[in-house]
Write a structure and sequence with these properties.
Helix content is 32%, strand content 16%. Strand 4, helix 3 and strand 5 form a beta-alpha-beta unit.
């Protein structure tokens, strides 16, 4: 199956990534992608851009280098009630919103606390994707998370970086297998993303593809197969 998009990438604006927007777009075009999502870390992450960066995304063209570009955020879940580090009305203006838990922005809680944080974020109507829900440092009840994602029309992310050899996330493979088996049972769609922080990783989905092949995961549940399928899960159609 050909993957046509990568919806989770970062530029130098995120503070700990290494390429410009133009370089990331060029890399996506070189990979043959049809759509790229640039989703900078929101404000609770050290070193990232400030609120004005996100307020001014309206000035950017949504077609660059021959591909569509969606500009949004990877918002940080900052408490166990699923609150995020961006005003709701600004979240709603993003083309795409990924909600994720990161060690610098929230202390790992119990399974119940982490699950509540994820589910409450999923229930936010501005959220489109739950980012890398595979880190054993943030254990969750995957059945509850998958069921909530299905109910609220939110994509669960299979994060290629989590499965790579340099990841700091723990037990991602085992957790992704558990999540994917439940996604199959609940008929809950997923999105495969690179989480690229440098241009050479844009469109890099090889570890995720290998796992999906191993599990014989249904192609109709992978939105990377179609730009139109992906757009049904974003804030900009």
């Amino acid at each position: 199956m050909e993957f046509l998009l990568d919806s989770h990438t970062h530029t130098i604006a995120s503070g700990h990534a290494y390429n410009t927007m133009n370089e990331m777009v060029r890399a996506a075009a070189d990979r043959g992608l049809k759509l790229l999502g640039i989703t900078e870390h929101a404000m609770a992450m050290a070193g990232t851009c400030n609120e004005f960066h996100f307020m001014n995304l309206k000035v950017l063209p949504r077609e660059m280098g021959g591909i569509e570009v969606y500009f949004g955020t990877e918002a940080n879940i900052v408490d166990y009630d699923g609150r995020m580090d961006m005003r709701q009305n600004l979240l709603e203006r993003m083309d795409v919103v990924i909600a994720s838990m990161h060690i610098p922005c929230i202390r790992p809680g119990t399974i119940a606390e982490n699950t509540r944080a994820c589910v409450k974020a999923i229930e936010n109507p501005a959220v489109n994707i739950l980012g890398h829900p595979d880190d054993a440092r943030f254990p969750v009840d995957y059945e509850e998370v998958v069921a909530a994602a299905k109910e609220h029309h939110v994509l669960l992310e299979l994060n290629n970086t989590s499965l790579g050899p340099n990841t700091t996330r723990r037990n991602a493979r085992e957790n992704d297998i558990a999540m994917l088996k439940l996604c199959r049972r609940y008929d809950a769609p997923i999105i495969v993303n690179s989480d690229a922080h440098c241009a050479m990783d844009v469109g890099g989905h090889e570890y995720a593809k290998a796992l999906l092949s191993e599990l014989e995961f249904p192609e109709h549940l992978i939105v990377n197969r179609s730009v139109e399928a992906y757009k049904k899960y974003t804030n900009r159609s």
